[in-house]
Amino acid sequence: MAGKLRLAVLGLLLAATAAPVLAAPSALIRCDGYGRRQTPGEQVGRGILILGTLGLFGSAEADNPSAREAGEAGVKACTEALTDSRTTGNPVRRAEVLLMRGIRHFEMGRFDDALADVRAARAVELTPLVRAHFDKTLGATTLMTEAIIRLSQNNLPEAEKLAFQAAQARPTGLLMADEAVRLMALSPEISADEKILLDRVWMISPNMRPVVSLAGAGDWAGAAATIKTLTAAMIKPGVVILSHQAALQALAGDSKGAEDTLAKVSQEIDELAAKATGTDQAAQTAAQQVARADEMVQLAKAQVALNQGKVDEAKGLLAGRSRWLSPASLTAQIIANVQAKGGPGTAAGIDPAKIRADATKVARDTLTGKGVLNALVVALPRWEDPDETQEFGKLMAPTSKTMQPKPTRDGAATGLSVVRTAAFDTVTEAMLVAAARAAAAKGQDRFAVLVFFTSTSTSRAGLSTRLALMDFVTPADALFAAQAARAFKVVDIEAALGGQYRVPVPQK
User: Fold this and answer.
1) Of 411, 482, 472, residue with least CA distance to 444
2) Cβ-contact 151, 367 below 8 angstroms
3) Structure confidence by residue, pLDDT tens digits, 485-496
4) Helices in 417-496 by DSSP H: which ranges?
5) Contact (Cβ atoms closer than 8 angstroms) between residue 201 and residue 174
6) Per-residue model confidence as pLDDT tens digits over 293-321
7) Spatial distance between the Cα atoms of 153 and 287, rounded to a whole number of angstroms
């Protein structure tokens, strides 16, 4: 009897220590890589959100994005997942699954099925408080996804309308505005809606996007002025952006400004070229920058020569090159300008119209081709816990050790930083609020962002920021004058966002 008991105990011990049999991923995991949402209530501002019985139905299952299935298998997984209690008991989770199935239909060219699923995802029944948060996160992504589908159906006007709606769902956000502007840039004209978004991008994160859009529309004076403002915000502009500035100034008819920029950048290119010898990464990077800058310098000089009536000199500067790698809009325009004055044989074999058409095709492919699927699946915003904004509010408290303003650029600007993983636009908004409050603490009513840098990854909330850095100036700073036209008003930021990013009241 004792021997049998020992054998039974030994058997139990062996069973307990044996490797567990791993269950195959559920249809929900195979659909979009995520399990249930576990919190039954969330807070938005002072209101409590009750998402039905969110998280109370269905078993817990570890997230596993690598288990997502694509194509037909993905469609089948999502269809099965719609019967899972984790989706039937949770409208937000159901919307996520419908959206993913729509993306898989889009992947297979089934545009009507894709549209039906994306619209169904946006139409899930939600309470008003939940709807408000849904619309600026997951709901905005359904709009942008529909815009991409409509673009794939060659309906650019409808795609632009939807993209603008997606961007406006979060009026102080950057991610969707930037995505919408990329889509709108496919048409050369800058509409009133596109202008609104370009201004937003330009104010939050000064970069080349508005320059490219203005140049694409043939607004050379606007593009030249914008890139000049951009370089003025930089500690040390690189040779590529300075040579780009010279070319735009030349196209705008500002030959004197172009020549001044060319004089500056030519010396810097020579210095950089001296570092371009060798095979290490630094040398290769320097060589690439020199090659790109040299090409735009050549184009700028050709346009300046043309402005001055030196047609033969302009023709000579374009001769002997069969391919140009500089931005298509300025390259095509300068070559077309010289060809118009230079006659037959000018830039032989180069067709400006083809340069523009090829660039437009590439830009369109980045929005509708295979590469876009990854963005639709993992990068565009998803649902994020609404109380995340309050966590950032805590970080802005005077007692916090993060998100506190500090002098940068030898006191010429103020810097902010935060290390916290959250949805990209949640971090964007939080940084704007922190900058507004820092400006107000200095007695200033406005501030202009000089640089907004982020280190990103993807999470369940979509594209997320792990680290964010922002430099800004106020009217009290010398650098502000050049940036005044793109400044935020403190009262506007507080009115739009202050209630969401509240600093906790100190406990007495």
Assistant:
1) 472
2) yes
3) 999 999 999 999
4) 424-441, 490-493
5) yes
6) 999 999 999 999 999 999 999 999 999 88
7) 42
d(CA 418, CA 427): 9
What are 284's two structure tokens?
């290769």
Q: Is 408 helix (H, G, I), strand (E, B) or coil?
A: strand
Instruction: Please compute the mean of the pLDDT values over residues 258-268 and round it to a whole number.
Output: 95
Contact 300, 251 (CB under 8 A): no
Where are any strands of DSSP class E within 203-331? none
Name, in order, each residue with C-beta under 8 angstroms of 440's C-beta and a sequence gap of 6 or more.
Answer: 490
What pTM value is reported for the model?
0.89
**pLDDT number for residue 21:** 44
| 480, 487 contact by CB (below 8 A) | yes
Q: For 108-238, where are the alpha helices, taking DSSP H only?
A: 111-122, 128-136, 138-152, 156-168, 175-184, 192-204, 209-216, 220-232
Tokens describing residue 311? 């047609």
DSSP state of 486: G
Residues, the chain: 508
Rounded Cα distance between 205 and 430, Å, is 14
**Percentage, residues of the chain above pLDDT 90:** 77
| Confidence at residue 373, expressed as pLDDT on a 0 to 100 scale | 76
